[in-house]
Structure formats: structure tokens, C-alpha cells
């Protein structure tokens, strides 16, 4: 018997999944321990091993980890001092940004403070031209003086980003080697390794983020590897990346910028996994946890992938208000609307929910750990949607008196009763999540109406039907073990690494010898990373794509080639693929304009993971366990409460109904019905 282990550390809960080779799962949730993430990690691991009745040494499959350690460090600015080395005369690159105002008419526009302050930004006399020609090489004496200045500054890490280094990394490589030799206790990374792409500011920003997180991520992952070995789990952990793949801990630790969206990406990949099993080509994944809610479009059973996203946005929906990161990532939208999101009254006297979260400490008022603000979880408890005595299967009793006190304070300020305040929170957070999903879809030219909503996360099944109604979704699908689906997603995700390198060239002037060299370098780098993760060369698959545009345009369209262009060298086929993708996105084609390749993309992927059903539906149709008053839809409405484990395939439940399981609860509103499908999913539809 093979046992594989997955751990997903979120902002509020840490989810643990132990998977047997027959597909059966043993799961657990524990509060995230932000002071020491490994304490919560191994506390949950010990709990799930005890439930399964096995020892740590019995874990003989993969160990996969998704974590918020990098995201938390960036948002909370917990990283140590970081230095940035740039071409002389360009020390203001992080301050000037790209001179774009994301809101032209807001006089109070805000941007996040640069991760590297002015006094830790250093210029060095060097120059590389756009064609890769090096016209000035840094002098050894200047590099030694730079090292002395960095040592005196107290910086723990250094990011190096020179002009046009994506075209020729020679100067960056020389300086990085010298600094690593002269500053042996300082982490060093270069833009030519982290983000070898055109455009100076995003490249500098991405490299800075990587350097800022390295002193946190690399020691953390090394401690994790050591601790696993000490616990008797000998496998080297695999780490989930934002792009939807997993790699070895050492590779991930050196490239922490690739881990920023690891947890949400795992959830999106799990949605794709179920789309394949259920035979659904298009759906909207909806992941609502304790801190945030995420939405992702799944097209042709695969998620959309973007080459640019932002972290630490000053305004949640304002593109351009955050720190840009140019690494491949699952394209999703994330808002501060989770179970721990705190309700408040704004300056206009209106009820708002989030983005501030109570997290795991102190948590919502109902956790009884000192939280004072009314949260979404408190509203769910007040409305009767969750049971104070059955939270986490009764292992974590909720404090109803604390919830009532928090909602009484909020209701008094609104001139409403506690129940009315709770209904307001429920409605506001549902509208916020639906609005985010609409924005995400319409910005990408996708009609979201009629798409099934695939709901998971600790709070997702509670709110999914309300969101689906606003989105005009055809159905809501709640998979087995939905509360820990992101952790499950890491176990059904193949080992994979996405790599990019810019090389601006007209399509009618492609130098295929140069293309062979660029793609060959990227493929070798990817294969080396996958070997570290335990893959053999025979198991690896290579996919090649590019970011393309019409000459003179500012933005590119990513395309994927059905065949390796190095083998076919078919320029006409490449042009046809780009033209079709451009037409689908924009509806027109300026066919008289020459095409350009801006960036090459290579995906190196391991073997696919075979599916084994995670759900074990009951053999015969069950009956409701009890009836309790619920106030979500009307006052004191008697609602039947079902245990999910009692439901059999084909059984249909008419709403209103509550379906409970240890880690989450599914709410079926009046006018809806739910059926158990052959895989064990709850499929809810509105009459």
C-alpha cells in the first residue's frame, strides 16, 4: 500500500490530506500557527497519521506542500533587509515603476512601498545593449567596493538587475559570482535567472521579490526537509508552484517568487482534475477559505495561465496598484472575502465585509480566542448554517455567546437586530464574490453565464448557491473532501516547471539557430529541476509556446504550439495559431501588420496522475439526522440537516437543506435541489 501526504498552509487553516493508493483519503484541518508554520504543519500530520492508524515511516509516496509563507512575507513586510544592484543611473527603477496611473482621476492614488528602499539600491557601471552586445564590463575594484557597501548596509540578500540582461546575462553572472564569493552569508539572485524577460521594471520587481523572500523560503524548506527526515518520513518534499506544477524543495527555495500563489493554484488544478473526470469542458472554480475567496476560469478542462500578476495590491480590483511579478501563474482573482473576513461600517454608514481578516489568531469571535469583530463565520453561525457543537466534527466548539455579542454591537450601529446584521454580512460577501468572478471573466472576454460553479474550501459550499444564483450558473458542484481540496490538488498535479525567456524578433526574420539555443537551454533547465523531483527523462513531456503580438503593439497574446517549432520550423503555422487566438480574444485581425515573437515559453512536465475516486458514498439512501432552525432565508425556518456520509449515489435532496461533514457544510437554499453523482459530488441545481 502506498501512502502520499499533502499539506496546504492557508491564512487561517492548515489542511492535511493522506491519500492511499486505492484513492481513499484521511484528512484533517488545524489552525495555522503563524509564529512557526512547521508547528501547525506537523501537528496536523501527526493527527492525520493517528486517524489512519499508520506510522510516519509508512508514508512511502510523495510529500507535497503548498504554503503562504512567501505571500505572508510580502504583504506583511516580514522579510529581512534586501539590496538591489542596477545599472548605474537607474537606481529609481522601483520608485518610478512604469509611470502608469491605474486610476487617472484619483488624486489620492496609492502604490505599495518598494521592497528595497533607496539607501539599499546600488548602481554599478556596466552596459549591455538590446541586441546583447556588452559595451562595458564591471571592474573588479568596483565590484569589491560594492560588496563592502552591501556588507555595511546589513542586507541579507541581493537582487541584481541590469539593463538588457535578458539578451545577454554575462555581466549579471560575473557580478553575482563575485558577490557570492565575497558575501558568503548573503543570498544572491539575478534577473537573468529569475525573470529573463523584456521590460525593465517588471523584471526588476520580480527579481527583488525573489531576493526578498529567499532568506525566508530557502531556510524554511530546508528545515522542513530535515524535520521530515527526523520524523521518519524520508521523502524530499515537492513544492507547489503558482503555475500549477510541483518541483523539488531546493529549486523552489531558490525561486520563492514562483510559490506566491501555490495554494490557490492547487485548488484550480483540482477543479481541472474533476472537470476531466466529470466530462465538463468549461466551469468556474470557486474557492472560499478562511481568509480569501478565489475564482478561476477553467476552459477546455485547463486553467488560464498568465505571465504577469500582482501581489500586495493597494486596491483589490485595481490592476496596476500592486507589485508586478512576471512568472507563469494560474490566472485567478483573489479577494478578501473568507470565513474570517471582518464586517465593519464605512464612512458612509454602509456595511462592508473584508478585506481585513481575523485569521487564525485571534480568529472570528466564535473561536473564543479573543476576536471582537463580527466575521462571515460568525454570521453563518448566527443564521444557523453551521452548528456550534459540530465544528470540525465537534473537536472545536464555537462560542455562540461571543458571536451574539459581536453581531449585537454591529447591529446596534446599523439599527438592526443581530440576525439582520448576520443576513447583511451573508448578502454582502456573496455579492462581493460574484462581482469578483464577473470581473475576472469579462476582463478575459468570457461569458460566465451558464457555467457550472465548482465550489470548495472551508466556506465555499456554504455560500456557493448564493454566488451561483447571481452568476446565473447552471449548477453548483461540491466534490468529496471539498474543504481540503487545495491540498488534494497537490496530489493530482504532475511535476512541472514553466520557463520563459524573451527574444524579440519579427516572425519573418526568425533565426532558427538562435531559437534552438534558447529553447534548448530552457529545456535543459527544466529537465534538471524535474530530475531533482524524482522524474526520469523518459517520463518528461515538453510543450512549447510563445508570447506574440502585432508589430507596434504593447501587449502580447500567449499561444501554445501543437508541435515543437524547432522540428517543423513552420512560420506559417505559427502565424495561423497566433492569428486565431488573437481573433478569439479581440474579434479582429490587423492582417496587414507583421507579427513578432516577444518571449518563448517552455513547459517541462512529468507523467499524469491516475484518478482514484476520493468519495465513498453510502450504499443506501440515508435520512436526515435532525432538524434545526435556520434564519438565512426566513426567520426560524425548520431545515433538515443531513450527514454527507449517509447520502447514496442518485439520492436527491430538496432545499432548504443543510449537508454536514466534518470539515465543511453545504447549504441548499429553498428552490434548489441536490443530487449525489456517481463520483460522490453534490450537484445542486435551481428549479
Q: Into which percentage range does the β-strand content fall?
A: 25-35%
- Cα-to-Cα separation, first versus last residue: 45 Å
Report the total helices: 17
Mean pLDDT equals: 88
Strand count: 35
- Backbone CA Rg: 26 Å
Structure classification: alpha+beta
Helix content: 25-40%
Report the sheet with the most strands, covering strand number, pairing sense and barrel closure.
Answer: 9 strands, mixed
| Low-pLDDT residue spans | none
Overall geometry = globular
Which key terms come to mind for this protein?
9-stranded mixed sheet, alpha+beta, 6-stranded mixed sheet, 687 residues, 35 strands, single chain
Structure summarized in a few sentences:
Residues 515-677 form the Acetophenone carboxylase-like C-terminal domain. The protein has 687 residues and is an alpha+beta fold. The chain contains 17 helices and 35 strands.
Describe this structure in words.
With 687 residues, the chain is of the alpha+beta class. It has 17 helices and 35 strands. The strands form nine sheets. Strands 13, 14, 15, 20, 23, 24, 31, 34 and 35 form a nine-stranded mixed β-sheet that branches. Strand 11 and strand 12 form a beta hairpin. Helix 9 (262-278) crosses helix 14 (485-491), helix 10 (376-382) crosses helix 12 (418-442) and helix 12 packs across helix 13. The longest helix is centred in the first third of the chain and has 31 residues, at 200-230. The radius of gyration is 26 Å and the shape is globular.
